[in-house]
Structure formats: structure tokens, C-alpha cells
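TA notes, week 10

Several of you asked for a full example with nothing omitted. So below is the full record: C-alpha cells for the whole chain, then the designed sequence directly under it. When grading your own attempts, check the secondary structure regions first.
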């Protein structure tokens, strides 16, 4: 894992000027791109939870891997979090085609400038429902290495399982539960209002027949003990309060440890991704008005 050589005053692309970028590209052609969402996370969490997660993991990983961070793509695909009109939930979602266009244009610009290895740091699970075609086509079209890192838990806690105290039934990694509440406490505790936090679980939507079951925030439903069914559902149909799990065991200390583990893991992966052979087929990006 590389360490910062002190050459730059910032790892953020927005803070740099062309001579800084050219100097960086002489030694490294990777870049991290945070992406997330602007969506409700219960009454105790900020709308920016997912993008703040991606920004913080990217920032820490960039310092450890001696690489740069692109401007964040601050919102994504969250139609299931809009809720009813005039409820003031605050979710801002892109249509799938809008998100794909933004990802394409951002990527093509970065490749145009000389970045060959683009690593998207995605803090919002539902973005993955629509991203594969654009990443795959960018790889075919340009030859660039396209990757996505997903620093969150849900059904798979992996690196952070021993940090969490919630039981499996309390779904530590799900929406606004222990993991997300902890990392937001570490990111900016003023944004977290624990007096509003609820300990709740996912449930099957009312329209779903009793023979089907649902226990978490995945789009899957269980029938006769097996998960072979997917239904497009609104988040409020199975999690009315926007919370799935128990956020009340969250702490800033846990959040900081989660940030450290994910950023270290990502930095180590960056060093390995640098070893992938790259042959750029199409560098110049001619934008069609």
C-alpha cells in the first residue's frame, strides 16, 4: 500500500490545477469516484448518508494509496424512497437513463485526461441495479479498467462483522441500522439525532399473500422457504419508517473503525488494480451537443 509523498496539498481533483494533475498522472493513472444517493434514512439520519460514506472512504483510501478522488456523484437511483407527495422526505433520485448518462460522461472525461483505471466507490446499493451496462460498455469502448467498490454491509458484513453488536435478526448492515448510524456519527455527529431513532424490522408488503415472506431490504421474497422471486417494491411498503434494524447500538468509535477498515482494504486493492494491463482503444472524448 503506497503512502502519500506530500507532493500535493490535496487529493481532491476539485482542489487541483492542470499542472498538479499532469504531475500525478506521471506516477499513477488510477482515480476514485465517490457515488451515492440523496435519500431518506429514517428520522434520525441525514439524507446524505450514502454519499458521505463514499466520500469519507474515498478520502481515507486516497491518502493511503497515494491517488486522487474525483468530484462526487452525489445522488443516484432511489425511486423507491420518494414516498407520497408533500411529505417532505427530501429524496432526490435520477432516472436510470440519467444516471447512466452521467456515469458515462464523467468516465469518458477522466479517460480523456489520461486516467486508465476508474474505481467507483458506491455507497448506495440500488445504484448497482442500473450500472452494469454503462461500466461494461465503457470497458468495451475505451479499454479502461472499470471497477466498483461497495463499502456497506446489508446481507454481507464481511470485514466489519466483528465490529457490529446487533444480532442477525437486528440486521446490523441494513438501512439506517447500526452500521450506517455508526459511520454517520463518525462523519458528523451533529447530523445524527438519536432521540428520533427507531428499532424496527422489515416486513412483507400488505399486498403480498401470506404465503410469501420478507425479512430484510432486498428485493427478494421467500415462497415455501426459498427465495426465487423478485418484486419491484417501494421502500415504505416493507419499511414504513425507513429503518431496517436496530440503530441504538451505534457509536462513533464503531463508525471510525468501519471507515478505517474499508479504506485500508480499498487502498490495498488499488495497488493490485494498478497491476492490470491496460490498452486504451479510444482516448479522446468528442462530446456531441
Amino acid at each position: 500500500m503506497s503512502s502519500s509523498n506530500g507532493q500535493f496539498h490535496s487529493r481532491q481533483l476539485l482542489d487541483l490545477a492542470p499542472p498538479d494533475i499532469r504531475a500525478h498522472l506521471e506516477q499513477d493513472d488510477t482515480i476514485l469516484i465517490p457515488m451515492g444517493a440523496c435519500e431518506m434514512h429514517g428520522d434520525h439520519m441525514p439524507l446524505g448518508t450514502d454519499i458521505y460514506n463514499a466520500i469519507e472512504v474515498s478520502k481515507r483510501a486516497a491518502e493511503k494509496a497515494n491517488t486522487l478522488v474525483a468530484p462526487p456523484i452525489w445522488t443516484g437511483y432511489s425511486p423507491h424512497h420518494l414516498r407520497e407527495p408533500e411529505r417532505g422526505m427530501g429524496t432526490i433520485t435520477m432516472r436510470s437513463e440519467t444516471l447512466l448518462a452521467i456515469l458515462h460522461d464523467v468516465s469518458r472525461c477522466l479517460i480523456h485526461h489520461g486516467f486508465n483505471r476508474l474505481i467507483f466507490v458506491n455507497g448506495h446499493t440500488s445504484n448497482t441495479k442500473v450500472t452494469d451496462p454503462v461500466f461494461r460498455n465503457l470497458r468495451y469502448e475505451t479499454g479502461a479498467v472499470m471497477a466498483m467498490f461497495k463499502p456497506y454491509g446489508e446481507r454481507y458484513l464481511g470485514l466489519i462483522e466483528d465490529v457490529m453488536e446487533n444480532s442477525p435478526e437486528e440486521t446490523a448492515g441494513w438501512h439506517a441500522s447500526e452500521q450506517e448510524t455508526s459511520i454517520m456519527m463518525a462523519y458528523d455527529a451533529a447530523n445524527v439525532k438519536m432521540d428520533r431513532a427507531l428499532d424496527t424490522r422489515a416486513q412483507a408488503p400488505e399486498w403480498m399473500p401470506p404465503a410469501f415472506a420478507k425479512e430484510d431490504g432486498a428485493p427478494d421474497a421467500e415462497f415455501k422457504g426459498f427465495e426465487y422471486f423478485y418484486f419491484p417494491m417501494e421502500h415504505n411498503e416493507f419499511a414504513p419508517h425507513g429503518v431496517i434494524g436496530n440503530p441504538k447500538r451505534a457509536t462513533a468509535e464503531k463508525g471510525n473503525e468501519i471507515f478505517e477498515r474499508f479504506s485500508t482494504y480499498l487502498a490495498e486493492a488499488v495497488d493490485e488494480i494498478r497491476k492490470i494491463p491496460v490498452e486504451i482503444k479510444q482516448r479522446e472524448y468528442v462530446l456531441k451537443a
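The longest strand covers residues 30-35. Use that as a sanity check on your answer.
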